[in-house]
Design goal:
- This protein folds into two domains: 352 residues, Collagenase (Catalytic Domain), CATH 3.40.390.10; 200 residues, Neutral endopeptidase , domain2 (Neutral endopeptidase, domain 2, Orthogonal Bundle).
- The chain has a four-stranded mixed beta sheet.
- 53% of the residues lie in helices and 7% in strands.
- Helix 8 packs antiparallel against helix 15 and helix 17 packs across helix 22.
- The two termini are 37 Å apart.
């Protein structure tokens, strides 16, 4: 599915879910003390203290690479979606709405494993033949455009985006893509583990090409050539840290300038092939990548390019193909790279695909079941309280000048809040789903979303659009539209419960709301003004003060290792870690404000309300993960490992130290001269 680069700022809280029922909901003012680990001092390792019992009782199921409280909630959401899909598929066809018919056909085709295995590669044969018939560079570019129209970003991506300098304008943008290892660094790092991964990757590519019909000798040779091409493209790609700089990825230029940078790409012809022939300029997010791509279009033999395109087609659609492709794809991507022991059940995989491809049609039924108007009102109240607390905080910041403060408060005042589900549901009338092999429906859904995305270019910004589906366990801040978005899928127990103790609610979902709000003022978000434009609104002195405080976060997380000799990249996780700290402080202040004029909450199970606030926060980060998954995370994910998402911000908070009577010198108490303070 094509997405704008701002999908990358989405705040992912949990991605790996196991097939088991959720824990029973506790009574409103209770929590299960058995989930704690009293053998660990709260002032030594609060993440382990607050979650140690739960972690022991909840090992990672073999079909997943991580399992946490958030995973339990997400799994419950999936089960509800399965019930909806099963009910829709069993309903007589004459009683189904148009969207229900699409859901039924998509679900049935995905679940029809026997049919998928029977047809094999037949649905892709015409595309494979087309790739094999490429005879020149012009034909190569034409195939790039064709594959991209099918939702496959090969070897680059083209999509719509708000112009960073004028957020009211939707423009076309091209960005680096085309690599099948998790990150460009996997191609260039020289440590032994990286070399082993590359060797295994080449074997994986060869196996997939063999499944696609190549002989073992030919496949092995082509895999080496594909690796050389991808390595060249990786060499021209920006690092993840470099891409966190909005200025670095804003390079809007005329087509003439784009052609001068990448002379072997005919942008006029390409844009006509993509159905947007009237564009006179595009944003080239990574000019160096496109210069290297252009060079490789003639430097790399055409037969190597054709092998690369066949590989990309098979790899990107492997999960929708027959069992041999699914199994080999799982062996490398899931078992080898992230330590997953067992394939997910087919129904889980099909629910995921339905949610990703037709999620707003599916989400309407989910909202009806799981997100009441009362819950929405309570969630909005929490958001409003957090916005007020952040405004109060900004008003009191000693290091911020009045000039910058005025701009900051103005930006906060324009924040758009989206809670639960869209006001207007997506129109799927142009989506063609039918009783056909699953990969055909997958490609049809890809093509629909690609065309829907490109149709936005040159039109007014749709400020009602959501980048996530309602059942998603997730949330995000979107800088160009200055909006915070909380799908109904995350506004459930144990993250949020209208009957739950306020201390827990503010510690859990409140800290997430605060996190999203402060993304508008982190090292990236702070570069966008109230209208969502990339524009400096800080005084020179205030920007310097902010960057010094942000650098404290970078140093702190550089010191955290997931295993000996494998530290976090502080610059990669800076934005999320700034938001974690800021979100927690804002949630605390909002909770304190909510207590004014009320009797002090009682002690529960021996824990004060202040302690329960921090226990609620830490509980939301309870998660076991495989070593392989953690290694991948610190290489590619802007979020730190969950242990440090808890211990990191809390060690900077005197409020935490006071709540648990921690002393100077305790591991959970950073020295005053090392304490990171931004908000």
């Amino acid at each position: 599915m094509q997405t704008s680069r701002y999908a990358l700022v989405i705040i992912l809280l949990s991605a790996c879910i196991a097939s088991r029922p959720p824990a029973p909901t506790p009574s409103p003012l209770e929590f299960d003390k058995a989930n704690l680990d009293p053998s660990v001092n709260a002032c030594t390792d609060f993440w382990r203290y607050s979650n140690g019992g739960w972690l022991v009782k909840n090992p990672i199921p073999p079909q997943y690479t991580a399992w946490g409280y958030g995973s339990m909630l997400a799994e419950e959401n999936r089960k509800i979606l399965r019930e909806v899909l099963d009910a829709t598929a069993s309903k007589p066809a004459v009683q189904r709405s148009a969207n229900e018919q699409k859901l039924a056909d998509f679900w049935t085709s995905c679940m029809s494993e026997e049919r998928i295995n029977e047809v094999g590669l037949k649905p892709l044969q015409a595309e494979i033949d087309r790739i094999d018939s490429i005879s020149d560079t012009r034909g190569l570019q034409e195939e790039f455009a064709r594959l991209q129209s099918m939702g496959l970003n090969v070897p680059f991506a083209f999509y719509s985006n708000n112009d960073a300098r004028n957020s009211a304008e939707v423009i076309g943008e091209v960005g680096q893509a085309g690599l099948r290892l998790p990150d460009r660094d996997y191609y260039v790092k020289t440590d032994e583990r990286s070399k082993q991964i590359r060797d295994e990757y080449v074997k994986h590519v060869a196996r997939m090409l063999e499944l696609g019909g190549s002989s073992s000798v030919t496949a092995a040779d082509q895999a080496q050539r594909i690796m050389r091409l991808e390595t060249a493209l990786a060499g021209g790609s920006m690092t993840r840290v470099e891409q966190r700089d909005p200025e670095a990825i804003y390079n809007r230029m005329t087509l003439d300038l784009a052609s001068a940078n990448a002379p072997n790409i005919d942008w006029v012809v390409y844009l006509k092939q993509r159905g947007v022939p009237n564009l006179t300029s595009i944003n080239v997010a990574q000019p160096k990548f496109f210069a290297e791509l252009s060079r490789q279009m003639t430097a790399t033999p055409l037969d190597d390019w054709k092998a690369y395109l066949r590989w990309q087609l098979l790899s990107r659609l492997a999960s929708a193909l027959s069992a041999p492709f699914v199994d080999e794809n799982f062996r490398f991507r899931n078992a080898y790279l992230v330590g997953q022991k067992k394939q997910q059940a087919r129904w889980e995989r099909c629910v995921q695909r339905a949610n990703e491809q037709i999620g707003e049609a599916l989400g309407q039924a989910y909202v009806d079941r799981k997100f009441t108007p009362v819950a929405k009102r309570r969630a909005l109240e929490l958001v409003d309280n957090l916005v007020y607390a952040l405004g109060d905080n900004l008003s009191r910041l000693e290091w911020m000048s009045d000039e910058t403060r005025k701009q900051a408060l103005g930006k906060l005042g324009t924040f758009v809040r989206k809670i639960g589900y869209p006001d207007t549901w997506r129109d799927y009338s142009a989506l063609r789903i039918a009783d056909v092999p699953f990969v055909a429906n997958e490609l049809s859904a890809n093509a629909f979303e690609t065309r829907r995305d490109l149709n936005k270019i040159g039109k007014p910004v749709d400020r009602a659009e959501w980048l996530m589906t309602p059942p998603t366990y997730n949330a995000y801040y979107n800088p160009p539209q200055n909006e915070i978005v909380f799908p109904a899928g995350i506004l459930q127990w144990p993250m949020f419960d209208i009957a739950q103790d306020d201390a827990f609610n503010y510690g859990a979902i409140g800290s997430v709301i605060g996190h999203e709000l402060t993304h508008g003022f982190d090292d990236e978000g702070s570069q966008y003004d109230a209208q969502g434009n990339l524009k400096n609104w800080w005084t020179v002195e205030d920007r310097k003060k902010f960057e010094e405080r942000a650098e404290c976060i970078v140093r702190q997380f550089n010191s955290y290792e997931i295993e000996p000799g494998l530290p976090h990249n502080g610059k990669l996780v800076a934005g999320e870690s700034i938001a974690d700290l800021g979100g927690l402080i804002i949630a605390w202040e909002a909770w304190q404000k909510s207590l004014e004029g009320k009797p002090r909450p009682s002690v529960v199970n021996g824990y004060t309300p202040e302690q329960r606030f921090f226990l609620g926060f830490a509980r939301s980060r309870a998660s076991n993960a495989t070593p392989e998954a953690l290694r991948l995370r610190i290489a590619t994910d802007p979020h730190p490992a969950n242990k440090f998402r808890v211990n990191g911000p809390l060690s900077n908070m005197p409020q935490f130290s006071s709540a648990f009577a921690c002393k100077s010198g305790d591991p959970m108490v950073r020295a005053a001269n090392e304490r990171c303070e931004i908000w």
